[in-house]
Amino acid sequence: MMTTNNIKFSPKTNDRTSLTNEQFTTKVNLEKDNIKYYLSKLFKNNEAEMESLATLALQRAITNYQKYDGHDTLDTWLYGQITTAVIDHIKAKRSIELA
Q1: Residues 18, 22, 23, 28, CA torsion sign
Q2: Contact between residue 53 and residue 85 where contact means Cβ atoms under 8 Å apart
Q3: Which of 84, 54, 81, 51 is nearest to 66 (CA)?
Q4: What is the pLDDT of residues 29-85, one digit of tens each?
Q5: Which three-class secondary structure string do you get for 80-92?
Q6: Helix or strand run (H / E) with residue 33
Q7: Does residue 4 register a pLDDT over 60?
């Protein structure tokens, strides 16, 4: 179990009510470097795009936290949100290039 700022995060927490919105936002901010590393592997040649997408994806995850049902671990759900944001970004980029 990880403790940061007196907030305890269990890596296998499935209970939706286990974190308040504020605690979830704190967790997302703590994961920011890991998420940027994850995205840097996908966007090796474009750091500005990666930074922009990281911010967008994190905002999306914070906004969608109310939809988290506890079915998956919080980390799995979070990275699912990030991956979906990447896929949506690539689809939008392709549709602009094809237009």
Answers
A1: positive
A2: yes
A3: 81
A4: 888 888 888 888 888 878 888 888 888 888 998 899 988 888 888 889 999 999 999
A5: HHHHHHHHHHHHH
A6: helix 21-42
A7: no
Q: Is 20 helix (H, G, I), strand (E, B) or coil?
A: coil
Contacts of 66 (CB under 8 A, 6+ apart): 21
Q: Collapse the DSSP code of 51 into the 3-class scheme (helix H, G, I; strand E, B; otherwise coil) and give the result.
A: helix
> Domain tally for the chain?
1
Q: Is the pTM of this model over 0.85?
A: no
- Of 50, 52, 53, 2, nearest to 26 by C-alpha is 2
Q: How many angstroms separate the CA atoms of 79 and 13, rounded? A: 15
**Residue-level length of the chain:** 99
Residue whose C-alpha is closest to residue 24's, from 11, 40, 14, 9: 9
Q: E strands along 44-91, which residues?
A: none
The one-letter code for the residue type at 96 is: I
Domain of residue 36: give its range: 2-98
- DSSP code at position 66: G
